[in-house]
Amino acid sequence: MRTMRFSYPEPKNEPVLEYRPGSGERRLLKVALDEVSSRCPDIPLIIGGREIRTGDRGDVVMPHDHGHVLATYHKAGPAEVELAIEAALAAKERWAALPWEHRAAVMLRVAELVSTKYRFALSAATMMGQSKNVHQSEIDAVAETADFLRFNVWYASRLYGEQPGSETCCLNSMDYRPLEGFVYAVTPFNFTAIASNLVLAPLLMGNVVLWKPSTAALLSNYLLMTIYEEAGVPAGVVNFLPGPGRVSSAVALRHRDFAGLHFTGSTEVFRAMWRTVGESMDRHRSFPRIVGETGGKDFAVVHPSADVLAVASAIVRGAFEYQGQKCSALSRCYIPASLRDEIVGQVGDMLGAVRTGDPRDFRNFVNAVIDEESYDRCMKAIAEAKASAEARVLFGGEGDKSRGYFVEPTVIETTNPRAPTMEEELFGPVLTLYVYDDEDFDGVLRLCDATSPYALTGAVFARDRQAIVHASDVLRNAAGNFYINDKPTGAVVGRQPFGGSRASGTNDKAGSILNLVRWTSPRAIKENLLPPEEVGYPFMAEE
Ligand code: NAD
Predict the structure, then answer these.
(1) 8 A C-beta contact, residue 324 and residue 431
(2) Is 448 an annotated catalytic residue?
């Protein structure tokens, strides 16, 4: 047995490449984009390290060119989910018993592979499969994926180091055990990094995982799975199960050994899964850990003292980057009457320079929304706003799904602060503005707090410090990630741990030590160095 103690210093965030014209990284990425667009892999299930093809197939298409099939994939049925559970449980003991530095080494190796050998391939798969421009893909698929891994290793080393004190007569310690059973990771389409983290955070803590990836992100997610294998994740420790979530959930959530759910996605799906877990509680061996980060209706409240250009750029970047398909995307904005014309004018000028189209044309800032359902949902909401006497479309408002699912960046102004587009998550490039009377800043803060069921991200814009303090107090429970004079998107691992409460999830803060705590079941151990040899206590002696 080797004896050593590893120390993991605080990591640095992965540098974000700029992809300027003429740069080496731009040339390499273009080669990778051509490769991804011309290959058409047949994506299997991976169970116990074996590729399985069920023959029940689906297509992965480019959202910006939906006639172009990027890959085909096989869907898991109930029998494959059972098989995956068996494979996970069979792999569990050895993975859990591995000295944790070796699990950490595998994670750090994934981070190295993602940021070097597979940097351009993973980015290209994300750009083509999820319709992201190069910058959005770089900050997600590469930088955030690597950051989650490196920071989690550092957090785990701190968590494992968290030990109780010992007195002279006894030794106390905490054994951070993995959960008993398997963790079920159900991942969203919109961030490659989130998909990776939902699988690998429990893995680092010694758990085994069933991974149900989003069909709309299969190209990048399958590449991740092969990177995990190359990095040394043993067979059965992660089992890759594309296919309908309903089918895999029906088996996984009801299983005796279901120990935890790591989910990111919509509130509605999370509630349905939680219900299934509750209904199955008599079957479970333990009380499962349920971690879910869900929807948002993210806001900005602008004070009359705000800097107009900062507000306008936050609106355009916050609402329209990645087509508004970030859970943190700005989708409702409260602006004072005195600044209304200036802000709207600046937003109009900025949007005038924004191009929409295929991510392979690097001049495009906005690309396609993920699928037809999303396109139709956005266009329906826009049509309703156009027909409403309370609303008018200031910018955008058109769409075209003939080749790709393109929705113009759209700004609606409403006189009804409770209009549907002020309350409901649309998950597309649609922002609604509500203009308030300058004198009613306190009232609009209270309105903002009470308007939507969500509490994910939000921002206040002001130069007046009293206004900032007041907004921060009134909106204390309205957002798990709160921004001052900044857009409410773009949380960075290790800097702004991410998550919201109310209908936005369990707020277990991805990218922080708090999330890792959920994947351990600590055992407190006491060793008595001098056990008593009699029963009596001193007080029992005669006077
Ligand atoms: P989604 O809920 O449609 O899907 C998420 C995952 O659940 C996918 O893998 C999907 O296949 C699966 N799924 C769908 N129906 C299921 C069912 N009945 N049973 C089991 N699994 C099922 O979400 P999405 O469209 O992939 O992502 C968008 C949503 O995710 C938005 O609501 C967004 O706000 C949210 N999101 C939240 C965060 C956060 O940190 N709070 C981050 C990213 C995305």
Answers:
(1) yes
(2) no
